Amino acid sequence: MVEVSREQALAYRIAEHGLHRPVEDVNALPLLDLGLQDSLRDTALLSLAARVPGPVTPGALTTDPRLALVWSHRGAPHFHRRTDLPELAASLVPLDDADALSRMLWQRKELQQTELSAVDVLFTTARAIRTVVKGPITKGAVSTAITKLLPPSFARWCRVCGATHVHEQLMRLATIHAGVRLEADRRPATLAPLEDRGRPATRPSPAATARVLERYLRFNGPATPGDAAGFTGSARASVTGIWPADRLTEVHMAGRRAFVPTDRLSALENPPTPEGVRLLPPLDPFTQGRDKALLVPNKGRAKEVWKILGSPGALLVNGEIPGVWRTKASGKRLTFTITAFDPLHGAVRAEAEAEAARVATARGFPDFVVAWT
């Protein structure tokens, strides 16, 4: 069995994530095979800025007609290539009821109240959304409308909204099966029909789901089946039957068995040396790997990188995460506060400040300042 060191795994991931900036065209970014998450303000845009060599402007993703923003993996908003959406939707059809329950974040007791299978709950909701969304319409209006169309057992009291409405996660998961996308850069969140939406896939596609697991392992491998299932939100037992073992190689890393796609084994064995500085935003795909202890072994530092509420961005330096960063906007100026866990060389600080300039440009700020702590 191949033995893989922590440093080797991190160097491989950095290369696969495109953090060496080998690709200029957004649509050619390999990471789009999995999607760019956009859960926080400008997350996907800043993830892009960390991965392409040229300047990134505020509309780099939102105005690109080749891309669409949809609720996909785990119900989180991701930018995907429009040409990838049919297979993506097929991969998001639950494999079975246990898988549907896991993705919906429901308990079996909640499901019993509906007197339906979990899969039927999902597609009943999708049909309601498809009926309601005929043009751009706010998420709140959609929720109100479909709650009236669906059985009362689909809804719960929401303390935040002060109203009873359909489950948030259920609505998010059902939307892509309704042929509906998110309007990028619209506040409040606004839904709209996909321009070329056809009939939704309603039967599971084990092959399509297996390909998502394999792509997770490509970008975040070596990793375990549980890591990959966590990315999709699937039940761990559900992915066992579709695990693409014939296309994977098992390795030994950090005291555990893990997997990587066989066609990426040579890249794992001989990854390029990670060099340079990047400012990764919160929820960047690199820091969203499920095995966070591999990225930051020090528990105290890990708590600074991944907070329960309000996580900062991560400072990536030559393959390691030696600090975090935050921003605060004031007028036309963006102020960066970069906190280093250990003293950094002046050259590293200069590179970090050059990256701050890229972030400011991407967010549309003509002026910026960097404070170190």
Task: Tell me the radius of gyration.
Answer: 21 Å
Structural class of the secondary elements?
alpha+beta
Strand order of the largest sheet: 12-13-14-15-16
User: Can you give the helix content as a percent range?
Assistant: 25-40%
- The count of strands amounts to 16
Largest sheet: 5 strands, mixed
Tally of alpha and pi helices: 15
Number of domains: 2
How is this fold's topology laid out?
Blueprint: E1 2-4, H1 6-16, E2 36-37, H2 43-49, E3 67-71, E4 77-81, H3 85-91, H4 97-104, H5 108-112, H6 118-132, E5 137-138, H7 139-149, E6 155-158, E7 163-166, H8 168-175, E8 180-182, E9 190-193, H9 206-220, H10 225-232, H11 236-240, E10 248-253, E11 256-261, H12 265-269, E12 277-280, H13 292-295, H14 299-305, E13 313-317, E14 320-330, E15 333-340, H15 346-362, E16 367-372
Parallel strand pairs: 1-10, 15-16
Antiparallel strand pairs: 2-4, 3-4, 5-9, 6-7, 8-9, 10-11, 12-13, 13-14, 14-15
Organism: Amycolatopsis jiangsuensis
Protein name: Winged helix DNA-binding domain-containing protein
InterPro entries: AlkZ-like (IPR009351)
